[in-house]
Amino acid sequence: MRLSQFHLRTTKETPADAELVSHQLMLRAGMIRKLAAGLYTWSPLGLRVLRKVETVVREEMDRAGAIEMIMPTIQPRELWEESGRWEKFGDQLLKIKDRKEAEYCYSPTAEEAVTDFARQELNSYKQLPVNFYQIQTKFRDEIRPRFGVMRAREFVMKDAYSFHLTDEDLVREYHNMHAAYTRIFTRLGLDFRAVQADSGAIGGDASQEFQVLADSGEDSIAFSTGSDYAANMEKAQAAAPAPRPAAGEAMNKVATPTQRTCEEVAALLGIPLQRTVKSVAVMADDAASGQHFVLALVRGDHAVNEVKLGKVPGLAGYRLATEAEIREHLGSEPGFLGPIDAKKAIRVVADRDVAAMADFVVGANEVGFHIAGVNWGRDLPEPHDIADIRNVVEGDKAADGGEIRIVRGIEVGHVFQLGRKYSEAMQFTVLDENGKATAPTMGCYGIGVSRIVAAAIEQNHDANGIVWPAPMAPWAVAVCVINPKNDAAVNDAAQRLLAELRGNGIDAVLDDRGLRPGAMFADIELIGIPHRVVVSERGLAAGTFEYRARRGAEAENLGREELFARLLS
Ligand code: ATP
Ligand code: MG
Fold first, then answer.
1. Going by CA atoms, what residue is nearest to atom 13 of ligand 1?
2. Whose CA is nearest to atom 27 of ligand 1?
3. Which end of the chain is more exposed for a tag (fewer CB within 10 A), N or C?
4. Can you tell me the distance from the alpha carbon of 209 to that of 374, in angstroms, rounded to the nearest whole number?
5. Given ligand 1 and candidates 139, 147, 158, 414, which is best to mutate, with the most ligand atoms within 8 Å of its CB?
6. Domain Aminoacyl-transfer RNA synthetases class-II family profile spans what residues (predicted)?
């Protein structure tokens, strides 16, 4: 490949509307161009990188025994009605109509399509297990598309779906995919961690996310210093609290005329924030109690985790109570709420840490007052529910004896045990060994192929631009020719070197654009080529090439043998 025959268009200026360094550098390197919000064109340069990522993903999926196929991006409403996700998927699902007014969606994921394929193709246990995958464009109408291809609306995903007769076999394949993902992200040179994840709305029991560690990541990941335990915030648990101490104080009402937050109340009373309790009023709706008011309690220095709270029995789909509802049930205003209610009719859900507190402070359900010295069992009934409903925080004790630390991550992959949700909803059965129709159990495994490109840049860049991990680089080596138009000997030598490199299986590109050395080197550094070799008149005379590694500090003059030894090592 010769750059004079390629399309490379770089810029020096940092684009004003790009916040993340990966977004800035992808634009500056000319890898992507925006078409509309969350929609990006991959330039020839960008596509080379995307294809390299795809290649690693494909090789490892194939090696792990998955079978590649491809499914349509446009999928009929009827199929999505069968799974119930036409409505449930929400506004991320882009719905479209054809000329006959028939409705379709643009696939955000493909459980329905693959299950439809499977029910047409598979009818016997002998055809199981099987794992189908595709590398295909997805569309999600994200509320806030941002950070370029990191959170786009249209993006490339590798999605795989496995089918099994038994749950044990699903677990085996889940581990197989986990191992394949570990190989993929290791080969791509990424610093990553597999973290336990909440199974979420899709249902299913076990789920892990592969997170690339980066301060710019949108996700928080908790890990323990005591073991390899790592989990996302929806799932992470601290150690259970120590048993509740005995009551030491009498209950007393304190005036807090303008103090509404736990911080303000703790400051006024001169007590640690950890002695206060925050009351969050929500409305839940379940079959047993219908629409009802619930007070969720966390320690003053903690925050409610919405997903965890939604897992408390009866609280699925809860919402925050309105001020009118709060007034109706507690006769007070936000800022002064608490679980001590004269009628004792309110359902109280206490975080584990709150249930283990003594002598604590809560709102008095009276504007301008709080109550201190409160104790469970004595001043108010024991909580109806005790559950882990809070976010872990840095420094929490972990169950393994270590300490919880929190870092940021970018989710690049997800492995998931789905179970029989789709096979049952879509009436997909196979005959088992006894000739009985049985619904197969499923796993699904996603990788954000296009997101990986941005995530890799977040981890690998310097002041001069991108520093690609070798397997992702658009080319391994750039052969830079000084003054190619006027110096036939130098030009010939460079062409010969290029041919030789390629003959040795090295993916090299010739920069024969005729730029001044400074501008040429700046481009090659910006686009992150791992190795640079300069062919010049001076070098030719001395029988050497000037070599510099993208990560190295100094350029060196190397003879031909040394150069090849270096590039092939
Ligand atoms: P996120 O929490 O980041 O929205 P998700 O949980 O919705 O991700 P999955 O449904 O598990 O993602 O999709 C599989 C993979 O696809 C993710 O691990 C991620 O790498 C990638 N992905 C998801 N949404 C986007 C997006 N808007 N842009 C780019 N990649 C995405
Ligand atoms: Mg998402």
1. 446
2. 151
3. C
4. 41
5. 414
6. 38-469
Question: Which amino acid type is present at position 180?
Answer: A
Cβ distance 133 to 66 under 8 Å? yes
As its CATH architecture, domain 252-387 has Alpha-Beta Complex (3.90)
**Higher-scoring residue by pLDDT: 511, 488:** 511
With the C-alpha atoms ordered 203, 205, 210, 216, is the resulting torsion angle positive or negative? positive
Q: Which ligand is nearest to the CA of 450?
A: 1
Please give all residues whose beta carbon lies within 6 A of any atom in ligand 1, as ranges: 109, 140, 142, 151-152, 155, 157, 411-414, 446, 448, 450-451
Q: DSSP for 331-384?
A: SS-TTS--S--TT--SEEEEEHHHHT--SEEEE-SSTTEEEEEE-BTTTBPPPS
Ligand nearest the Cα of residue 91 is 2
Query: Which atom number of ligand 1 is nearest to the Cα of residue 151?
Result: 28
Cβ-contact 128, 103 below 8 angstroms: no
* Residue where the block lists tokens 């069968």: 82
Task: Compute the distance between CA of residue 156 and CA of residue 415 in angstroms, rounded to an integer.
Answer: 17
Residue closest by Cα to atom 15 of ligand 1: 448
CATH of domain 47-71+111-237+406-457: 3.30.930.10
Cα–Cα dist 404/65, whole Å? 37
Ligand 1 centroid to residue 411 C-alpha, Å: 7
Rounded-to-integer distance, Cα 465 and Cα 26, Å: 9
The 3-state DSSP class for residue 541 equals: helix
Q: What is the pLDDT of residues 267-302, one digit of tens each?
A: 999 999 999 999 999 999 988 888 899 999 999 999
**For the CA of 218, the nearest atom of ligand 1:** 3
User: Residues of 503-535 as b/e, b for ≥16 C-beta within 10 angstroms?
Assistant: eeebbbbbbbbebeeeebbbbbbbbbbbbbbbb
Distance of alpha carbon 138 from alpha carbon 37, whole angstroms: 15
Single pTM value for the model: 0.90
Region 406-433: what's the mean pLDDT? 96
Determine what percent of the chain is predicted with pLDDT higher than 70: 99
CB atoms closer than 10 angstroms to residue 450: 26
| Ligand with an atom nearest the CA of residue 150 | 1
Q: Average pLDDT of 558-565?
A: 95
Residue 200: per-residue pLDDT = 58
Smallest-distance ligand from the CA of 147: 1
Q: Among the atoms of ligand 1, which is closest to the Cα of residue 152? A: 28
Q: Ligand 2: distance of its center to the CA of 202 in Å?
A: 12
d(CA 290, CA 304): 23
Kindly list the domain boundaries of the chain, sorted by start residue: 47-71+111-237+406-457, 252-387, 475-568
143-177 pLDDT, tens digit per residue, is 999 999 999 999 999 999 999 999 999 999 999 99
Position in ligand 1 atom list of the atom nearest CA 159: 14
Superfamily grouping for domain 475-568: Anticodon-binding domain (3.40.50.800)
